[in-house]
Amino acid sequence: MKRREWRAASLLLTVLLMLLAAGCGSNKGDGLIKLRVGEVTRSLFYAPQYAALSQGFFEEEGLKIDLQPTYGGDKTMTALLSGSIDIGLVGSETSIYVYQQGTDDPVINFAQVTQTDGTFLVAREPQEEFDWEDLLGSVFLGQRKGGMPQMAGEFVLKKHGINPAADLQMIQNVDFANIPAAFASGTGEYVQLFEPQASIFEQEGTGHVIASFGVESGSLPYTVYMARESFIAKNKDAVEKFTRALYRAQQWVESQPADVVADAVLPYFEDADREIVIRVLERYKEQRSYAADPVIDEAEWNNLLDVMESAGELASRTPHAAIVDNSFAERAKEQ
User: Fold this and answer.
1) Where are the transmembrane segments (predicted)?
2) 3-class SS at 324?
3) Cα–Cα distance measured from residue 127 to residue 321, given in angstroms and rounded to the nearest whole number
């Protein structure tokens, strides 16, 4: 082989090795398998994930987790489909949207983290004897249209005989990050909020939690880990280890008091008030928002489809078996 050809071949081999080293589920020099995980937002709603990290469950399974914020369902799915992350933590409705658009490499839901909606109904004034009919004719500051919080919110309103389009003034043109500030500045009589903002408003006297959309909308696979079918096929061992670590964290969060869980997750929320964190965790634990295991059961899936169908966001009902793989979750429970 001529020197120039040899150099070209050597360079090509080096590039290929570099790409493999940087690729999905790659082995690090320390023997750990690296997984790039994109989280749709940083939230106490995902406490089991941070517990798995802080308690060393992922590392004990031989995994190195590169946790990346992906800021929104659309961006998380784009990152997943483009291969810039291996696993996404996001609402399962995003995988349904991708499936219904048609794809040769569908996104598969393989491990559930939260099993209820995570938002609360917050009023400006305390309402000790709140009735959903109190919302009739009010100005309601809701969530972004097409997102799971909005769909779950409207599902609950309809459940109580309220037509969101006709029976109240629904505001949905405020960006997710700006909703708390809009309410604090005087927009709306009621607002649909995630934690910890709901508890912060209570502490400040800005608002008062009067109902839970999570309790009212029932169990559904609200936030799950998902990956492309091709990635799962090539990295079954890594996905199994990941799911096993998550299950250990879910059992740990289930068994520990809120203050212990708070101390475990606080490193991921540097500016958070510990007492607020404990309050949020207690609220989510009390309404069983955290799934106790990673299994995505069919009844929950069908409830999710009902919520999406009610919101007019479902072209057709995607079968549970089409984009849910419970094999890793079931083995984690068995082991």
Assistant:
1) none
2) strand
3) 43
